[in-house]
Structure formats: structure tokens, C-alpha cells
Amino acid sequence: MIFDWQTEAWNGLIRLRAKLPHAILLHSREGMGTAELAQAFSQALLCETPQADGQACGTCAACNWFGQGNHPDFRLIQPESMTPEAGDEEPKKEKRSEQIRIEQIRALQDFLAVGTHRGGLRVILVHPAETMNFNTQNALLKSLEEPPGGTVFLLVSYQPERLLPTVRSRCLKLAVPMPDPIRAESWLKSQGVAEPGEALANAGGAPLGALELAKTDDERHRFLAQLRAPDFDPLALADQCQRHAPVEIVNWLQRWSYDLLLSRVAGRVRYHTKDERIIAEISRRCSAAGVAGYLRRLARAKALARHPLNPRLFAEDLLLQYQRLTAKT
């Protein structure tokens, strides 16, 4: 799928087809639809009768296989947690990995060792690339350095700085730019978002992120109302938080706290434009160093948020720290 705001990035990819590099690193803010863009380009590279604008025809045998998820010359490498479980499979007892495992990269060797089934390209899409650890990236590096002919690696990353310099250096880097806010708001409105401008601001300008946030707008507003309240009760709010995924709570706290810091040091906000006045009032009770330290704590918490040992205590700890940070003196 190619979204309206991706035209520039898509044209950049199509221009590369004349002299296709063996590895492309697509990087952007999360929530921009970059993974969908990479999927569309993968299909276009494998399509046997592409359209005039470079997009896949959607009707040839290659496109039908791709749409069904079984094209023999395509591999999608992503964390197990991002792969839907088959309906007839019993849920696994062990936790599904949040990382791309080294075994997934090593398994590519058999795929790379044989010729392509349709006599065209072979495409490997890695997403999100930063979920590979050091050893896994080194395993991929071997294939990036000496790929077989007719092989294209597409790496999608939202945090390219987490990739090894040697991995980045083997790729042609293409940034997917932020969309024009008017175009993004128009798209969000077409998706039924009641307040697209507010949703876009809360997602840092990322349209798909804004659409996802809009689904939980009522819950988020109730959560933020508690943070603003003069009689803020962290334990009561932690109890209410049990209805939400811990990672969602961390995301809400991160955006709110970032605006506290920005208000404190620059007199403006980025995400919560309608709450600028109350954020300024709260930020005056905080030190910039204190808010920065709390943001670092939230960043560490986010790494644990998908599988906390005790979600209630997890939320209580973060909210008690917020209370101490913003307490009136």
C-alpha cells in the first residue's frame, strides 16, 4: 500500500530500479507507513507486469502469490511477536520473541543458495531492522557484504542509529519524509478521525500513529485528566490503568512528560496543544533535569512494558515517580 504522503519516497524508490542496489535502508518515524511502503516496493520488484507508475499490477501470478503470502522469491523477516498466529494453532506457552532472532537470519542461507523460481529478483524485507541484536546484525552482515546476484535487501528502521555502522554502510539510505500536515489531516478525516489536527499533534506528525491513537482517545483523555488534577492520586490511577496495555501507559506518559520538558525549557509544547496552559503551570513546579531524568526512566520502562512481571506495580511505580516530580512545594 502506498499512502498519499509517500509519493516522493515512492518515486525515489522507482528511480533506483534503473540501477538497483543490493540493499536499501528505508528509515522514518514510526507510524508513517514505511513498512507498508516497503511491502509495496517488494511486490513491485517481483511483479511480472508492473504498471506505468512502477506499482505492481496486482493480477499476475507473482502478485497473487505475494498477496497470499507465499511468493517463493520473497522473505519477510520480522519478530515472532509481529507474526499473526494461524487460527488452527494452539497458543504457545512461551513468550513470543520481540526480536529478530539469529536463527531467522541464518535460515536465509538456504533461500540464498538456490536460484530464483521465476527467473527474476529475490527480495528480503527486514522489519523493524533495529530489533536485531548485535550478533544477529553481524550474521546479516555476511549476506549484505556478498549477496548473490539478483538479490535485494530492504531494511525498514525507525531507529537507524541502533544499527551497526557496518550494516548501515552496506545500504543505500532513503529517508521517508514527514507528510505535509494538511494532507495528513485530510487523510485522517477521511478515516473518520473527529479531530485530525489534535490526533496528528499527539502522534508527532505520523498519520498512522495518529489513527492508532485516535482509537483510544477517550481513555487517553481520561488518563491525562487525572495527571492534570490538583488531587492527583497515583494509586487510584494505577488501578484504572489495568484496563490498558502497560506499553500504552508508558507512551502516554512519555508524550506528556516530553511536553513538560519542552514547556519548561522552550515555553511551548509539541503533542498536547490544547493543554499548553496547564502543562506550563505544571512544568513550573519541575526542574528540567528532573523531567529529563523521568523521561530516561520511562525509556527504560518501555523496554519492559510488553511483559512486566506485575502490571499493577509497574504502573504504580511510574505514577508515584510522576507525583514526586510534579508535587507542589
Short description:
With 329 residues, the protein is an alpha/beta fold. It has helices at 7-16, 34-46, 61-68, 102-106, 108-113, 134-145, 165-169, 181-190, 196-202, 207-214, 217-228, 234-240, 246-266, 276-283, 288-304, 311-326, and strands at residues 23-27, 74-77, 122-126, 151-157, 172-175. Helix 9 (196-202) crosses helix 10, helix 12 runs antiparallel to helix 16 and helix 13 packs across helix 14 (276-283).
Count up the domains: 2
What fraction strand? Answer: 5-15%
Helix share, percent: 40-55%
The CATH superfamily of the largest domain bears the name P-loop containing nucleotide triphosphate hydrolases
Q: Would you list the SSEs in sequence order as H and E?
A: HEHHEHHEHEHEHHHHHHHHH
Q: Count of helices?
A: 16
- Mean pLDDT over the residues: 91
CATH architecture of the largest domain: 3-Layer(aba) Sandwich
Please summarize the sheet with the most strands: 5 strands, parallel
Question: What do we call the CATH topology of the largest domain?
Answer: Rossmann fold
The structure class reads alpha/beta
How are the strands of the largest sheet arranged?
A: 2-3-4-1-5
Count the beta strands. Answer: 5
* Low-confidence runs: none
| First and last CA, distance | 53 Å
Global geometry: elongated
CATH class of the largest domain: Alpha Beta
